[in-house]
Design a protein that fits this description.
The complex is a heterodimer of chains A (302) and B (277). Chain A is an alpha/beta fold and 302 residues long. Chain A has eleven helices and 14 strands. Chain A has two domains: 221 residues, 3-Layer(aba) Sandwich (Rossmann fold); 74 residues, Alpha-Beta Plaits (2-Layer Sandwich). In chain A, strands 6-7-8-3-9-10 form a six-stranded mixed β-sheet, with helices on both faces. Chain A starts with a strand and ends with a helix. Chain B is mainly α and 277 residues long. Chain B is built from twelve helices and two strands; from the N terminus they run ααααααααββαααα. In chain B, α4 packs antiparallel against α8. The chains are: A alpha/beta (302), B mainly alpha (277). Chains A and B meet through α2 and α3 of A and α1 and α7 of B.
Chain lengths: 302, 277
């Protein structure tokens, strides 16, 4: 993976009235990254992405995209970016095809109907190209949003909650499309989502932000590893098993009883021994799983 | 140029853009029916104070009189029809979220707002031309041509051949007046994220200022020269015997200054606006 920076943000600040939305945020997206952008509601994710797209103006901070200052080369930079910000808003009274034609005119590119049909096929809307967007479901609008985002074959794709409102098939389709565009076209992707599993599955690097500041930034594997040690155990007699494990000499930490399940921290290697110990102590082990690692980490720091 | 065509297209794909045309069509036809059937009543109403001193002969209820009645009756209400569309031009896009898609593309905000102003102006001009063509066309078709009787502070009777140019200039001035209203509402539309707020605020300002402009009280007379609504009735000057062109041009310049000021204010707001909706 290349280490060339595509997006470099330093000391980004923004407030609305007296409310601080971004507080000295730093982030760096490298060429070819699928860069996950995580944070709770109101943490500043959308504000950051809107600033990158010049929809919102920052108060302080430097933004460099494709080695150019965003403030100086807005036009040049935006012509290489495709985006979906929040729920994509289309002109509801006209057809999806006409919407894309209008948006391509705004981008200064002329797309033929055939090229647009191809886009509709990619996002799975080829049978509804001439339907008014007002008749589209939320998931279909999201697919159309994806079509307009990739219309100008951007080098950088900024996706704010692209899975929102999609059914499982839609989510899978969009996920596969993002991976394909990243792999085959080398498209760099910034993707914000509340669906931690999606980020864990799709992204190679990520940032977690909270209250407008970066909590951590790095490779997904590295961050997931930091939160990996939490184990959930379900057995037939949880209280007795809990006491047994507490008094054992197994290498476990932070053991606690949470409703009917036992939670504890341990190393990866210790898991088979815990299982064996419980079975030898005549407990029936129904479930022994690792707690969702990223979720664990995310919840700890946000 | 492409962006301008898109903005014009966007104005005319909305249903609300046709409300004004439909309302004008309805009122003009209803007035035509009323004037045709109640010609004597109309004439009695217009000449009620003059009957004792003058004798009227000839066909005074004709297409010209009808067109003048339409003009006088509708002039107060046309701003309401205009702000329905122009008040929504920018705020409607904030509200529907379409600006998130448009403004994240390589297009300048200056181009967008300028195109919206021009598209709004074209709509206003078409609406007034529609009103003019309809009232004069239907009037001449069903009531014929004839001398025009105008009763304001004085009574003026213009020969049939001396009327059309007055209507053309009156409607042209009317377009300018309505462009001022449109500019105000586009400016407010740039300021507010909600169309209803922008439309109601535009109406509230136009109605209040028009109300103040009609009063003849010393205190209000001091502020009147600063209200654009004071100059919006300038079209009536074309129906005087001695048309004071110097005064009309002065009034027109004041309106143009207001239009430019509203445009600059809109630019100032829009270029700094955070697109949060």
């Amino acid at each position: 993976m290349s280490s060339k920076s595509i997006v470099k943000v330093r000391g980004l600040c923004k407030s609305f009235g007296g409310l601080i939305a971004l507080n000295n945020l730093d982030m760096e997206v490298r060429e070819g990254d699928i860069y996950g952008f995580l944070g709770p509601n109101g943490s500043g994710k959308s504000t950051t992405l809107k600033i990158l797209l010049t929809l919102v103006k920052q108060e302080m901070g430097a933004i460099e995209i494709f080695d150019n200052e965003l403030a100086d080369d807005r036009w040049k930079i935006l012509s290489r970016i495709g985006s979906i910000v929040e729920k994509p808003g289309f002109y509801e009274r006209i057809s999806a095809m006409k919407n894309l034609q209008i948006l391509s005119e705004y981008s200064g590119i002329k797309k033929t109907e055939d090229e647009l049909h191809e886009l509709f096929q990619i996002v799975g809307l080829s049978d509804r190209t001439n339907s008014k967007v007002g008749s589209y479901s939320h998931g279909m609008k999201q697919r159309l949003g994806f079509a307009q985002a990739i219309m100008n074959q951007p080098d950088l794709l900024i996706l704010d909650e692209p899975f929102s409102g999609l059914d499982p098939k839609g989510m899978r389709d969009i996920r596969e499309l993002i991976l394909k565009l990243n792999k085959e076209k080398g498209m760099t992707v910034i993707i914000s989502s509340h669906q931690l599993d999606e980020i864990e599955n799709i992204a190679n690097r990520m940032i977690i932000i909270n209250k407008g500041s970066s909590v951590c930034e790095g490779s997904v594997k590295e961050i997931v590893d930091r939160g990996k040690m939490s184990i959930i155990i379900r057995v037939n007699e949880p209280k007795e098993a809990f006491q047994k494990l507490q008094n054992s000499r197994l290498p476990i930490k932070n053991i606690r009883l949470d409703d009917d399940c036992i939670k504890l921290n341990c190393s990866h290697d210790a898991i088979p021994y815990i299982n064996q110990y419980l079975q030898m102590s005549d407990f029936k082990v129904f479930e022994l799983t690792k707690e969702k690692a990223l979720e664990n980490y995310y919840l700890t720091y946000t | 140029m492409k962006i301008l065509f898109i903005e014009i297209y966007k104005v005319f794909i909305r249903r609300r853009s046709y409300i004004g045309f439909a309302a004008i069509l309805f009122i003009v036809i209803m007035l035509l029916v009323a004037v045709s059937h109640e010609a004597k009543t109309v004439l009695d109403f217009l000449t009620s104070n003059l009957k004792d001193s003058f004798t009227f002969q000839g066909k005074l209820v004709n297409g010209n009189l009808y067109a003048h009645i339409v003009l006088r009756s509708l002039w107060v209400h046309i701003p309401l029809l205009i702000v329905l569309v122009t008040g929504d031009l920018v705020s409607g896009e904030y509200q529907s979220g379409t600006f998130r898609l448009v403004l994240s593309r390589p297009v300048s905000r200056f181009t967008i707002i300028s195109s919206k102003f021009i598209a709004g102006f074209i709509y206003v001009a078409l609406l007034i031309v529609f009103l003019a063509a309809l009232s004069l066309g239907l009037g001449y078709l069903f009531l014929g041509k004839g001398d025009l009787l105008v009763t304001n502070d004085t009574i003026n009777i213009f020969e049939a051949d001396d009327v059309l140019w007055r209507f053309i200039l009156a409607y042209s001035f009317g377009i300018l007046s309505m462009l001022t209203v449109a500019s105000l509402s586009i400016m407010l539309s740039t300021l507010f994220d909600n169309s209803i707020t922008a439309i109601l605020m535009s109406l509230a300002i136009v109605i209040s200022l028009t109300f103040l402009s009609t009063f003849n009280i010393p205190f209000i007379n001091i502020i009147k020269p600063f209200l654009f609504t004071t100059y919006m009735g300038g079209w009536q000057s074309f129906f005087a015997f001695d048309v004071n062109m110097q005064h009309i041009v002065f009034e027109a310049i004041i309106l143009v200054v207001h239009i430019v000021a509203f445009y600059i204010l809109s630019l100032y707001i829009f270029l700094r606006k955070d697109i949060l909706t």
